[in-house]
Specification:
single chain, 266 residues, alpha/beta, Rossmann fold, Threonyl-tRNA Synthetase, Chain A, domain 2, 5-stranded parallel sheet, 4-stranded antiparallel sheet, 10 helices, 35% helix
Amino acid sequence: MKKKFTVVIFTDLDGSLLHRDTFQFDSIKDYIKSLVNKGVIIIPNSSKTEKEIEKFNEELGVNLPFISENGSSIHGLNLITSNFPDKLVLSREKEELIKIFENKVPEKLKEKCFQISKMSKKEQENILGQKDVKLKDALNRKYTLPFLFKGDKNEKNELLKVLNSNSLTLQEGGRVLNLCDNINKVKSMNRVIKILKKTEDKIKTIAVGDNYNDLDMLKSCDIPCLVFNDQFIQDQINIDNLIFSNKPSPEGWADVIKTALLKLNY
């Protein structure tokens, strides 16, 4: 019997699927594999780099298509259907973004921005929670620039205004801010859905996140899921039909997915 629809899960990684501090997911690895075996398409949509997500796939033991660097590039759609593209780049190169940043952002605001790549190795380890090869992979960014902003709220809003007027964006994750092109997770998610619809008649989308840069993605899917994050109060997140887990990742990820699939009668 032909399936009624295809389920596609777009998921953040850090703090959503991966443990916030250890980045482990061993306790749900078999569950993820069982979903793939049932025909569920799982697409990590993360601020992580291409190399980091490739290594996540290696650890999982499954080659999942994925979106890296906050929507900047899409990888492996040909794993779903062979004539789909292997890679799509939606962003300008990081060096071009930095050039605009240096030329257009006022000096008083630039002084409040501290690039992670220019910090000592010890500072980088403390901020990103990674060491050695994993730290190198996290810093190997092609399209985004992670930094800390040490200004007040008004200065941050002023920075956002300057960036937006120059077709740049600021994506806020759990650990750092990322200077990005005029792209984000939801734009890349919608691009993927458009491609999938060339071969899939009906698609039901689930999106999983835990932080501010995930909220637009959650608002744009069929079943939005929020994994516990102590920075958030659930009642303050205004998203219709939101599924919320009281457990942190990785167990919280499995909980919201099971609830979402029940909701879809899948």
